[in-house]
Amino acid sequence: MRNKIILLTIIFLCSISSYSQPDTISYEKGKIWIGLKEPLQTANLLALKKALKISEKEMEINSVKSIKNIFNSKDEKLSRAYELSFEGNKDLVEYLKKFESDFEYVEYVPKVYVSTPYTPNDFVDDPDTLWHIDHLGLREAWYLMDGITRQTKVAIIDNGYDGDHEDLVGNIAYISPNANNNEHHGTAVAGIAGMTTNNGIGYCSVAGLYTDLYLYLFNDVPTNIVDATNANAKVINMSFINCTISQTYINAINYAYSNGVLLVAAAGNCQCSGSCTNYHYPASYDHVLSVASLDKIDIRNVYPPYCSTTYNDKVDISAPGWQITSTEKDNSYYFTGQCTSAASPMVAGTAALLLAINPYLTPDQLECIIKTTAYDIYQISGNAPYIGMLGAGRLDALAAVTFTINASVQNLTGSLGGTYTKFIVNVSNATVANNVAIHAKEVTINGPFSINSGKTFTVDNTGTFSVTCN
């Protein structure tokens, strides 16, 4: 099962006398949380019996199968909280009422729900065709982004494209001269990042709902990088490798980075001298996000001769890269094993989602979000030989989108007062009851909106400011 963000569940300190058998929909079967007035010497059933002075004749308590600390904390209150797992047909809450003097609370464990996923009409729900979509949490991420209409300009630099493909043409904003040459590799890479989504045709992609594609032929990569930057692309994907360092490349990359562009590149498939640990370029340059490739169970791809992913200390992040369905030349579709070439546009596409949420994120901020929200793959035994060599972990689009929304956007309604600081602030149906100062780069005010007499409303922004009336 794909790991998801677990939402923090608030523990309500309620009297145990108020509980009855819970409904099976809202609570976890066979689990309760307890808060003791004194911590157990050891988290086990024997210690619990001793603390509550329960005799061996009290058979109900023997239904407990395990006891564990909920929090790994030295905090006095948190250290006294435990989870009991027991046979599901027992009602321990009712039984433990007789010991309520020893408890601060006893409660059933609420089930955790995530947002209803948004399912586009070109999503195929099976374990093979678009497995990476749910593996990265994209349907839940798209649901959280409902209402966002910004498009991110994503440049793809590759060997060419089917520029007339039915599932690309709707998202292609620009294709350079001679790039519409019906090549397989570039067509697949572009499709993974941004094939048109929810158009009733073919399949969906990582950022197809939020992306304008700028497609360049890699006949002169440094020039491509500069041209894409000058076209205001905010993400550039490079699913190719060189085996030597080029100062001209470095100059172009530095230019793009200094102009707010996130550059993403395939870490390589062990091509340079046949070594899987050698540095491959452009991925290993500074200011480029290097992407390694994983299989369906988040283990490094090792499928020689063409799909064994490079691993080294320059890799920043890993992503799915095996058996990925995408667009193919001749207006068709392909089940590809391109490895790091496929993994890289997944990261580029995720960056495009984050920029659709907050277009003011810098390349360093994007990298930080993508890496710090990654799923830990080093806990998997198959990755033990590669610890520290596959970057921060596996890309988690849902975690990255959730973090960006929470960190970037503030919706203000009702009676306002004080200072508000976010990148994006939306004000609607609000009254300025006390002095208000907003420090943001994008501020939108939707009416009705009023300012009480004698109160101030100031906006300090260097981005956009708009007012709309309902």
Structure description:
With 470 residues, this protein is of the alpha/beta class. It folds into 3 domains: 16-110, Alpha-Beta Plaits; 131-405, 3-Layer(aba) Sandwich (Rossmann fold), CATH 3.40.50.200; 408-468, no CATH class. Helix content is 21%, strand content 28%. The chain has 10 helices and 20 strands. A 7-stranded parallel β-sheet has the order 6-7-5-8-9-10-13, sandwiched between helices. Strands 16, 17, 18, 19 and 20 form a 5-stranded parallel β-sheet that branches. A 4-stranded antiparallel β-sheet has the order 2-3-1-4, with no helix packed on it. Helix 5 runs parallel beside helix 8 (340-357).
Which SSEs are present, and which pair or pack?
Elements lengths: L26 E10 L8 H8 L11 E6 L11 E6 L5 H4 L7 E8 L20 H5 L2 H7 L7 E7 L13 E4 L8 H11 L16 E7 L3 H10 L4 E4 L8 H12 L3 E5 L21 E7 L7 E2 L3 E2 L8 E4 L3 E5 L3 E5 L3 H18 L5 H10 L24 H12 E13 L2 E16 L2 E10 L5 E4 L3 E5 L2
Parallel strand pairs: 5-7, 5-8, 6-7, 8-9, 9-10, 10-13, 16-17, 17-18, 17-19, 18-20
Antiparallel strand pairs: 1-3, 1-4, 2-3, 11-12, 14-15
Helix pairs in contact: 4-10, 5-8, 6-7, 8-10
CATH architecture of the largest domain: 3-Layer(aba) Sandwich
Tally of domains: 3
**What's the shape?**
globular
Low-confidence parts = 1-22
Radius of gyration: 27 Å
Order of helices and strands: EHEEHEHHEEHEHEHEEEEEEEHHHEEEEE
Structural class: alpha/beta
Average pLDDT, all residues: 89
* Main sheet properties: 7 strands, parallel
Q: Would you count the extended β strands for me?
A: 20
